[in-house]
Amino acid sequence: MSGTATSATTPATFLRRIIGNVQALLSLLVLLVILTLVALAPLVAGPDPTSADLSSAFGGPEPGHPLGFDSSGRDMWSRLLHGGQLTLGGAALALAVALTLGVPTGLAAGFYGGWFDLVSGWWVNLIMALPAMVVLLASRAVLGSTVWVLMVVLGILVSPSFFRLVRGTVANMRAEPYVDAARVFGLRDSRIIARHVLIVVRAPIIIQTALVAGLAINLQAGLEFLGIGSGDAPTWGAMLNEAFTNIHQNPLGMLWPGLALGLTSGSLVLLASALRDVLEDRDDQPHTSGPGEHPREADTPTTPRHAGARSELLSVRDLTITYPGADSRPNKVVRGVDLDVHPGEILGLVGESGSGKTQTAFSILGLLPAGGRVSRGSIRIGGTEVVGANERTLRRLRGRTVAYVPQEPMNNLDPSFTIGDHLVEPLCATARMPRSAAWKYARELLHQVEITDPDRILRSYPHQISGGMAQRVLIAGALSCSAELVIADEPTTALDVTVQAEVLGLLRRLRASRGMAVLLVSHDLGVVADLCDRVAVLHRGRIVEVGTTEQVLTAPESTHAQELRNAVLDDVPARQPWSPREVDAQ
Amino acid sequence: MLRRMRRTRAHTALAALGATALALSGCGTGADDDGEAGGELTIGTMTMPQSLDPAEAMGAALPFFQAVYDTLLLREPDGSYAPMLATDWSYDESRTELQLELRDDVTFTDGTPFDAEAVQANLERFPEAGGGQAQTLSDLEEVEIVDDHDVVIHLEQPNPALLFYLSDAAGLMANPNALDDDTLATEPDGTGPYELDTGNTAIGSTWAYTRSDDYWGEDLPYDEVTITVFDNENALVNGLRTGQINSALIQEVDQQDVVADDEDLHTVDQDIDMQSLLLFDREGEMNPALGDTEVRQALNYALDREAMLEHLRSGQGEITNQIFGPESVAYDPELDTYYDHDPERARELLAEAGHEDGVELTLPKMQEIVGDPLATSIENDLGDVGIDVTWDNLDEGDAIQSIMVEQAYPGMVMNNAQPASEWVTIVELVLPGTFNFLGTMDDTIAERTAEIQQAPEGEAADAAQELNRHLVEEAWFVPFYRMTYQHVTDDSVEVEPQSGMAVPSLYNYSPLD
Amino acid sequence: MINFVLRRVASGLVLMVVISVLTFGLLSIPDTDVGRHLLGPAAPQEHVDAHNASLGLDQPIWVRYLDWATAALQGDLGRSWFTSEDVSTTLANRIPVTLSLMLGVTLVTAVVSFTLGVWAGVRRGLVDRLVQVLAVVGYALPGFLITLVIVLVFAVQLGWFPAIGYTALTDSPTGWLATVTLPILSLSIPAIAGVTQQVRSAVIDVLHRDYIRTLRTRGLSSPRIVFRHVLRNAATPALTVLGLQFVGLLGGAVIVEQIFGLPGVGAMTVQYTVRGDIPMIMGVVMTTVIVVVVANLLVDVLIGWLNPKARVS
């Protein structure tokens, strides 16, 4: 639930993005106007908020009294602004208390775990089990009936929400290797927390803060309604309640405090949700799209500029993939790519990070991430055009004709289902196999990917097996519906060296036994050399060279292929930016 | 007619929800029995009894008790007394002995006869049991049993309100066998017209009563009576408008407005509570200025009662300067307007008393009684003449504590009922005690009250009027006005207000033809 | 599993003890003269003192607590100081009312929030905007305002439902339904606003996961992926929030019970706490803690059932 791509956000880009988001900007603006008016109440409010003249009770607006008068003949505008000081000040106090109590303890509990985690967790359970109303009333009886007392108590009562949020996020990232690495390098904990941890929890805290602020304001109004209020000090809740008791004599009296309350908490919610989009949305990360985000504006396949002989299995012509750029100028990440994969062939698609190889692979599967679209070209799988095809056509191809082996095995298994479920579901749904037969076949598949105790693995959940095992399972999944073409996206990058070799061997053997074709996406020429029949080199979205493996590796024509080849010697696997993972990938 | 249509629609809505029949039990069915005898009466109220033990009865919760207990005397709606468990009564010369003749045909549910012993046990227990009204019988010396159905109540001194008390909390008669247990609080045992239906009663929210089969007296018109307690008038009015409540007392002006807009609801107005600033410190112990009669008079002159009544109560009420109500013999219409709104005169009086520089006054503010509008209007009016008011916010929980026990304030704003019996008012407000906890006295008051005490209730009219005038002139109190409350009923019930009581007796409800 | 439940029950018991000490102390600090409050201003001081003594108020606080605790352990929660009602009986009468609301609201909220949240998260676009607007409205309006409008419109004006009162489910199921519908509706609106946001957010989060894409490449249909895989994974955070909402309803019910004149636990809390009716409030507090502990336990068990990883920890 926490942010994924936040570590890359600097304050400057953050500000820029907020300004770029209309919703965030507008709600911020409304809040700013309200805050300014309230802060400047002594200057702009006019009359004293407590000065009353019974003869003008319920009086309408008149010069100097823009909103008219309440039941005691007090100026509504003045009470609204002065009341705002108490209402918003109270909410701020509640927030301050909640943040002070919740965030540091949450950080410590999440980061260090151990006894502190246990003790603070228990306290949080205690606070959450406390009957809020009784505690509020009793503390009020003990400490006095001011807004401030109520808000401090409220702050304590809502502090668990911050604690849990922060603790959860931090505990999740605590397991990440780079935090260990930072420790090994001798960084002090305070520094690790400041540099790494705070950045991760920042976004969720900001969002939660906006929500809790709205909650505090509304709760305060509710307490006033119950007569547990601020005495005679003006607050928006008190005004609303006072207006309510006179609603039939002066129905308009509820409008202004209601509007002030509604606008403020409404803006806070809007701001929170906009912030969530700005801070947490993974729109800059090439991932898959949701089902609703398919290229609806289905791009029609365009006539290839040079047809050539097209392979009957996979044939890509003039493929161009476009993303909306920064200032809505289209950003082409793949341009005019031609590819062919013949039955039984292994084609390596190589290139450095960002060269467009993964995008090409996704476009073949019809699964470009949100915003991406095939703006030109044609992709045919087994003679069926993929570009512009509807969901049904694509689904018929997926699994049965073309299958996929992902890069990061652990992230690609649904943690809520057993390995057996993972294998059986497509067999039943896609290959229409009866369930019992599917289970038998799944077992057989695990045998084929050289898993020695398939029964145990079938019953296991993803977090119970190793990364190499998971990758075998994913390969088995790709094989399950007898696909003719497997698209393998860096299938060994996330595995350690010995497992890598095993998996490569497995792929090689499977190709031999099943005669399937493979499109192997990789930046690792070693892997390519080991496995591929032919190689296509991608550079900045264009194919710069295609040829047999031997040809490309020993006598590259293009400079990029040469560079790539030279780089193999000191190749270090490129790491993706950190994102919270459920489990270590071994 | 309108109401019928509404109910029909309720059926439709429920049918749409997959329900087959509208079967609201409890307080839902009140309005189904339009006017026919033998139906069900649902009363909504905001007052609840602390217990159903007569020793802990309070006047405001009397209907809860009247259902299950009878009083010795019946107090008619106009405040006069009629036979109930006692058929006849008479005082001796000294007015310290009251002879009661009791009914001989009444028994409690377990067969225990209601007799002289029962009266003795109940009356002698009442002042000892420490209920809220215990002091009303504090003068009781003994209850003498003459024979099975005759008793004589011996008092230490005459008490003109004794008959009132015997028709009120002190007169409720419980089964003598149950007096020693704690059970009466939740399992009342009396001779009344109804029995508590414990199955449908949820103490604290709903009290359900069903007709007692063998009631000795004349049956009340309803087979079942439900009294439901709410904590806000908004719910009461909603219940009246949907026909779920047959009758309720509505005090807030805004809710009265809502009622006025609903053609199906009937209202009977009654001026019951007097709202006033009660002064405690008339000798200037806490606030020396209040020891000066001029200052107290200035308080009275400073208030613009007409404006207060108009703006705070929408004109619903009568302004007054006296603590006695129109039903009392002490009442003098002239005294309602003894003090005009005269800020100039108030300032003069303050100057005469040597307070040219102003007076400071700190008063308690309980949200339930003193809302913001009332507080600011008092503050403004008094501030106008140089009396600087500071309000202390008090919670319901500690109000009595700090006002009565710690005696922290020289006065308070309060709503007091104005019963017909002048002695009840005198005991409550004038004589040393509850609202005169500092025990202030002067000769006139001592003499007049002694005179009233010796005379039968309502017969010392001259003395009572003299006392009243003296209290007004000496400005012992700063009354504002008598507030009009509304008895609101739906179209099936008629209610007759009870003299001097905000809550009508249970006997005052009848089906409307 | 049984071990887990037992541990939680044990920790819940400890929680009850600690909370009972805390609240008893907190309630006893204000030096309210209960006897005076009860007997009114007119009662003589010796009566007040006697009454206080009969309530045990002349004892030191720890003696009072121990007396209360010993009796409570034997199942005797005592009697209300102010209405003499038996605390256990009162709670037995009132808890079903509040629980009806809480369970009803939670059910409605769960169904509506999951439907809307999944719909908004999957479809985005216009539906998503609408859900956002709903969330803003639900958050922006104070709950009591929503309730008052609902009573006026659906009970008083249209007459579709009773405006006040409660009918026990055991007395009449239809009557029960009629009396709880509007209160549940009133409480559900803000709850739905909050939970829908969470479901939507969780759904979007899950949709971005790699395994969803991989499942897609297996040829599974979108509805299948959404209802089998997305929903199950999004349920964990959403259930957590739903659990918090449920617990929060204990407080939220106060206002709604007052407006609808429902004889529940919420409505009495304010009044009895202000008066300082310690036996009654302690009863309410203990019940609350039990409800909270059980609710949290249920949520955890449910999450463990849905999410195998939560089972190990």
From TrEMBL, chain A:
It comes from the Bacteria. It is a multi-pass membrane protein; Peripheral membrane protein. The chain crosses the membrane at residues 24-45, 86-110, 122-141, 147-166, 197-217. Its main location: membrane. CDD domains: ABC_NikE_OppD_transporters (cd03257), TM_PBP2 (cd06261). Residues 314-565 form the ABC transporter domain. Keywords: ATP-binding, Cell inner membrane, Cell membrane, Membrane, Nucleotide-binding, Translocase, Transmembrane, Transmembrane helix, Transport. Residues 281-310 are annotated as: Disordered. Residues 84-280 form the ABC transmembrane type-1 domain. Pfam families: ABC_tran, BPD_transp_1. It is found in: Cell membrane; Membrane. PANTHER family: ATPASE AAA-TYPE CORE DOMAIN-CONTAINING PROTEIN, OLIGOPEPTIDE TRANSPORT ATP-BINDING PROTEIN APPD. Belongs to the binding-protein-dependent transport system permease family. Belongs to the ABC transporter superfamily. This is Dipeptide/oligopeptide/nickel ABC transporter permease/ATP-binding protein.
Automatic annotation (TrEMBL), chain C:
PANTHER family: DIPEPTIDE TRANSPORT SYSTEM PERMEASE PROTEIN DPPB-RELATED, PEPTIDE ABC TRANSPORTER PERMEASE PROTEIN. It holds the Pfam family BPD_transp_1_N. It comes from Lipingzhangella rawalii. The chain crosses the membrane at residues 12-29, 101-122, 134-156, 176-195, 238-260, 280-306. PROSITE patterns: ABC_TM1. It is found in: Cell membrane. It is a multi-pass membrane protein. This is ABC transporter permease.
